[in-house]
Structure formats: C-alpha cells, structure tokens
C-alpha cells in the first residue's frame, strides 16, 4: 500500500448527501476480485449516459476536475452496502482523500485498508473547503497527515483528528498484511520454537 504523508492536489466539490457505495461503483462491476481497473467505472451512472457518452456537467467529467485527487463531499459519504470495491474504484481513479462531515462505518474502515484518507470535519469547515474546491484546477488543496491539517488554496488551515493507529498505518503504507509482516521476526521465532517443542504438529 502506498504511503500517505502529504497530498497537494485538485479537490472536487460533491455536495450531494448520502452518496452510497452503489453510486460510487454500481453492482454490475462487482464481479472482479482485482483492485485495479475499476476507476473507469467510478460513479458510472452519474458520469455516463446509457449510450456510454459522458454526462458533460458531472463534476469529474469537467476538464478542471479530471485529475481530481481529493473529494469534498456531502454528509454520510459511503453509506449503503459494504462493498470494498468502492474504495478500490476511488483509488484506481486517483482519489486519495475524501472529506465529509460523516462517513458510513464500513466504508470508513475500508478506506484505511486501501490507502485512502477519509477526513471528518465540522459542517462549517466543509463549507469553506467546498467553496475552495469550486475554484477548479488552479486551486490546489493540501492534506498533511503528519500535522493533521487541511489547507485551502488561499492558505486557510484547518486541523482534524484521527486515530493514532490509523494515522501510523497510512503514514507507513501498512495494510493488514503489512501489519502482520512487521511481526515476521516474532512469527519466525514462534514457529521455530513450536517445531522443536511439538515436532508432531
């Protein structure tokens, strides 16, 4: 998993509330077990018409937001079914951070396991960040995980809180497998001891 330290990038405003996982990645794209390749189907039913052409006014189809790395979203982002394909699709598109007033619990947890930083901010702060995101590609927002701050394009900085363990995992690029591998020396020692004390196992 790629480390997350500091991200400076284009932020897309998506003020819609209750953006659920079926909107993020519709059910017909859940057949794959691969994490890559889903970005092209991110927000598929909002991004594309029935004939496959782009919906011109959808935010991620607009020229200024095609390289979006941050989403500033409405309340209750990631609600709905517990599909891990939702953060897979966001990450494959290039999204590394989502900022909202609240997230669905399962989606929130899945983000950390896939290298995405979900940030909870109060409504008044999200409103400021949303307005900054509306400035387009020339307005770059900075997310600093080390210092737990989000800074707008004009220099306004806002702090946020995050569980220290989750912060540690993102800063070091550790998913569940990575966390296990940190203990590889202790695991090897245990297996050696078990082989000597219980060779019949």
UniProtKB/TrEMBL annotation:
Keyword Cell cycle: no
NCBIfam families xref list: leuD (TIGR00171), PRK01641.1 (NF002458)
Enzyme type, top EC level: lyase
Highest rank taxon of the organism: Bacteria
Oligomeric and partner information: Heterodimer of LeuC and LeuD.
Enzyme Commission code: 4.2.1.33
Taxon lineage: Bacteria, Pseudomonadati, Pseudomonadota, Alphaproteobacteria, Rhodobacterales
CDD domains: IPMI_Swivel
Name this polypeptide is given: 3-isopropylmalate dehydratase small subunit
SUPFAM superfamilies linked to this entry: LeuD/IlvD-like (SSF52016)
InterPro entries: 3-IsopropMal_deHydase_ssu, Aconitase/3IPM_dehydase_swvl, AconitaseA/IPMdHydase_ssu_swvl, IPMI_Swivel, LeuD
Keywords of this entry: Amino-acid biosynthesis, Branched-chain amino acid biosynthesis, Leucine biosynthesis, Lyase
Pathway: Amino-acid biosynthesis; L-leucine biosynthesis; L-leucine from 3-methyl-2-oxobutanoate: step 2/4
Gene: leuD
Function (record text): Catalyzes the isomerization between 2-isopropylmalate and 3-isopropylmalate, via the formation of 2-isopropylmaleate.
Molecular-function GO term, any one: 3-isopropylmalate dehydratase activity
């Amino acid at each position: 998993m790629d480390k997350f330290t500091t991200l400076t990038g284009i932020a897309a405003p998506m003020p819609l509330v209750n953006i659920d996982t079926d909107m993020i990645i519709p059910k017909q794209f859940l057949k794959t077990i691969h994490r890559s390749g889903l970005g092209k189907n991110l927000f598929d039913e909002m991004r594309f018409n029935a004939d496959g052409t782009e919906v011109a006014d959808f935010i991620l189809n607009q020229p200024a937001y095609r390289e979006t790395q941050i989403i500033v979203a409405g309340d209750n982002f990631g609600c709905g079914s517990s599909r891990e394909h939702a953060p897979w699709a966001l990450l494959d598109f290039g999204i590394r951070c989502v900022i909202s007033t609240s997230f669905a619990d399962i989606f929130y947890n899945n983000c950390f396991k896939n290298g995405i930083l979900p940030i909870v901010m109060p409504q008044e702060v999200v409103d400021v960040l949303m307005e900054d995101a509306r400035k387009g590609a020339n307005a770059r927002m900075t997310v600093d995980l080390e210092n737990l701050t989000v800074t707008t394009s004009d220099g306004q900085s806002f702090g946020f809180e995050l569980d220290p363990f989750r912060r540690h995992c993102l800063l070091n690029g550790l998913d569940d497998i990575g966390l296990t591998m940190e203990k590889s020396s202790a695991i090897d020692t245990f297996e050696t001891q078990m082989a000597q004390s219980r060779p019949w196992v």
